[in-house]
Amino acid sequence: MSLRSPLSRARGLGSAKSGVHHFWVQRLTALALIPLTLWFVFSVARLAGGDYEATYLWVHYPPFAVTLVLFLVIAFWHAVLGVQTVIEDYVGHEGWKLSMLVAVKFGLAILGAACVFAVLKVALT
Amino acid sequence: MSTSKPVDKRPLSPFMIGPFYKPQLTSMLSITHRLTGLIVTLGSLFIAGWLISLAAGPYWYGLYAGHMLAWYGQVLLFLWSWCTLFHLCNGIRHLGWDVGFGLDIKTAYFTGYTVVIVSAVLTIAVWILAYAA
């Protein structure tokens, strides 16, 4: 039984019943990012200095390449969910909200795909 | 939520940041969590630039690394590293709240100060490692 009025259903406003999924995936990706981010930040710090060979070999090493892809996919996913929450909270105008959500999701998807492809290219050549 | 205009202006609860509330550690860390989240997302451009230039070859990698190792690159990287580590530490605090840990005021302040200190220590550790390497 639905407690929503026919008018509110016709307007399509209110709960879309997907909030729990968003909440849950954001927490799950957050949990995975704790070890992955610490690994990434300290690894990059150790690679600092700009040596191409060392960085190339690091990304080329299969276990690191796999962990990097995991980190990138989960981090960009977490970022999409987080930025979405901020936009939905602070942008009131429907048109602006929708355009910004689409722009952020497309932009981060492109950036994430480019990063993963770059890792695979280095890992497989 | 209804889209129809309200009949009369009803009083609204004032926003937590502004002249109505005195700044508190808890509210400041809350807004900083969102702010650092946005900055870290913007900083993903650094990761993209790093990996894409690496895949493009030594010439492009050298060009990119040159900018990152210049003073302005180092300043941006320093800010970004702190934002990342703060968001990580405070994120753990949030995960604790999600399972019901530390919701009382005393613990919320204790974990809040812990996040500030631990994120600073981690940031310094990262940069010591970077300059020792």
Question: Features of this protein?
Answer:
heterodimer, A: 125 residues, mainly alpha, 0% strand, elongated, B: 133 residues
- Elements of chain A, N to C (H/E): HHHHH
Mean pLDDT of chain A: 91
- Would you identify the regions of chain B where 5 or more consecutive residues have pLDDT less than 50? none
Calculate the terminal CA-CA distance of chain B, rounded to whole Å.
56 Å
Describe the structure.
- The complex is a heterodimer of chains A (125) and B (133).
- Chain A is mostly helical.
- Helix content of chain A is 83%, strand content 0%.
- Chain A contains 5 helices and no strands.
- In chain A, helix 2 crosses helix 4 and helix 4 (62-90) packs antiparallel against helix 5 (94-124).
- Chain B has 133 residues and is mainly alpha-helical.
- Chain B has helices spanning 25-56, 58-69, 71-98, 105-132.
- The relative contact order of chain B is 0.10.
- The interface between A and B is large, with 40 and 39 residues.
Task: Provide the fold topology.
The complex is a heterodimer of chains A (125) and B (133).
Chain A: H1 6-11, H2 19-47, H3 52-60, H4 62-90, H5 94-124
Chain B: H1 25-56, H2 58-69, H3 71-98, H4 105-132
Helix pairs in contact in B: 1-2, 1-3, 3-4
Structure, briefly:
Chain A has 125 residues and is mainly alpha-helical. Chain A contains five helices and no strands. Chain A is elongated, with a radius of gyration of 20 Å.
